[in-house]
Design a protein that fits this description.
Layout lengths: L14 H22 L5 H8 L3 H4 L1 H20 L5 H19 L5 H29 L2 H33 L1 H22 L13 H12 L2 H22 L1 H6 L7 H7 L5 H15 L2 H18 L5 H28 L5 H57 L1
Helix pairs in contact: 1-5, 1-6, 1-7, 1-8, 4-6, 4-16, 5-6, 5-8, 7-8, 7-12, 10-15, 10-16, 13-14, 13-15, 14-15, 14-16
Main location: membrane
InterPro entries: MFS, MFS_dom, MFS_trans_sf
Family: Belongs to the major facilitator superfamily.
Length: about 400
């Protein structure tokens, strides 16, 4: 009987590494385009189904709530299934649910389908980083993770921009159908490109132990602070993009759909924010960096009160830069604050992240309807200042 020697982990510059790199980019582009592409469509959904802005936002919140539920479930079950098989199944499932949503007979059906779709997307997010850690050489791991996160941002941006253009000409149903078909094509490309797992070992998770870990982490002030901060910041960020079209379609801007679509290009500022956060965290303490980035978010929100389109668009870029930088920094703080049970702490982080998005992303629409855009932004500013207060309170303990 001969012993099989496991292949070396993927090293930068090799064909194996390039296949992993392109495969993991495809996941980010596909799933985050499909998770958030309804944001530019919310005014169209409101008109089609005769619902308010706050109710229309459930098309987004349903998906992110599904993400939260799915990530919680996959925290217990994801390590039982081979990484590539799970991700492939979820990519095809996500695209199929996007296609199904195009035929939704009523708004409730659309929200339900998006919730299920969010759960399938969670299957990819739950294991993508674990796949990279298992298959890629440690010297190349940091770079390929940054590539994966950049793919997420590009996916979020391309979905919003592309849909913004198509909706004005084709309507939301045909636009949604096209997004789903593109999702199928990307899933096929992913299945063909990404190498199968070589180092994955199925594990049985002790559910009781996992719950005890979660309870322990929720009692630690620094971890709880990061969870609350990321929930609030994600709520602020998603709320802004949820209702952006409502602001730009009406006075004083009254912009046509193809110009509004271009405004979503500012989403790419998130790549700069993530990269800057990594560098600043090495030069200064992560807590100091996080404080500066939360203040950047607040400055961006203040700029969104302007009726000058150039100041407004710049403010959106500043907000996006600050959010992704703060998100990168907060996740790093969580990682370095935990010696064991990192996967559990990460699961809690993402749970708060998407719960904040789901709840605040919809509730903030009530402020928009009741107090117009300025009242809406003031509400988000209060949440931003609360994040700053939380960080100041725990800063000494973290230091």
């Amino acid at each position: 009987m001969t012993n099989q020697i496991a292949p070396n982990k993927a090293q930068q510059g090799t064909q194996h590494y390039r296949r992993i790199q392109w495969g993991i980019i495809l996941t980010g582009v596909s799933i985050f385009a499909q998770l958030y592409f309804f944001q530019p469509l919310l005014p169209a959904l409101g008109r089609a189904f005769s619902v308010s802005p706050a109710i229309s936002s459930l098309a987004i919140s349903g998906g992110t709530a599904g993400m939260a539920a799915g990530l919680f479930a996959f925290a217990f079950w994801a390590d039982r299934w081979p990484r590539k098989k799970l991700m492939s199944a979820c990519m095809f499932g996500t695209a199929l649910f996007t296609i199904v949503s195009a035929g939704s007979p009523n708004f409730a059906a659309l929200v339900i389908v998006n919730f299920i779709k969010g759960m399938t997307i969670a299957g990819i997010s739950a294991v993508a980083l674990a796949y990279l850690a298992e298959e890629v050489d440690s010297n190349a791991l940091g770079f390929i993770i940054s590539i994966y996160l950049s793919g997420n941002i590009v996916g979020g941006m391309s979905g919003r921009v592309g849909v913004g253009f198509l909706n004005g000409w084709l309507g939301w149903r045909y636009t949604t159908f096209i997004v789903g078909i593109i999702g199928i094509v990307l899933a096929v490309a992913f299945l063909w490109t990404l190498p199968k797992s070589e180092y994955f070992q199925s594990q049985k998770i002790q559910v009781g132990y996992k719950f005890r870990q979660m309870q322990l982490f929720l009692r630690r002030p620094i971890l709880l602070a990061m969870f609350l901060i990321v929930a609030l910041l994600m709520g602020v960020f998603v709320s802004t993009y949820n209702y952006l079209n409502f602001r730009l379609e009406g006075p004083p801007f009254s912009m046509p759909h193809y110009i509004i679509a271009l405004v979503y290009v500012m989403y790419i500022a998130g790549i700069g924010g993530s990269m800057a956060a990594g560098r600043w965290s090495d030069l200064y303490t992560p807590a100091t960096t996080l404080k500066a980035l939360i203040m950047t978010v607040i400055v961006g929100l203040l700029m969104l009160l302007s009726t000058n389109i150039w100041v407004f668009v710049a403010g959106l870029g500043v907000l996006t830069f600050g959010f992704f930088g703060a998100h990168t920094t907060a996740s790093r703080i969580v990682s370095v604050s935990v010696r064991s049970g990192k996967s559990t702490a990460t699961s809690l982080y993402w749970l708060f992240y998407y719960v904040g998005s789901s709840i605040i992303g919809t509730v903030s629409g009530v402020f928009l309807s009741a107090w117009s855009w300025n009242g809406f932004i003031i509400g988000l500013l209060i949440l931003g200042l609360f994040c700053l207060l939380i960080l100041v309170i725990v800063h000494k303990r973290y230091s």
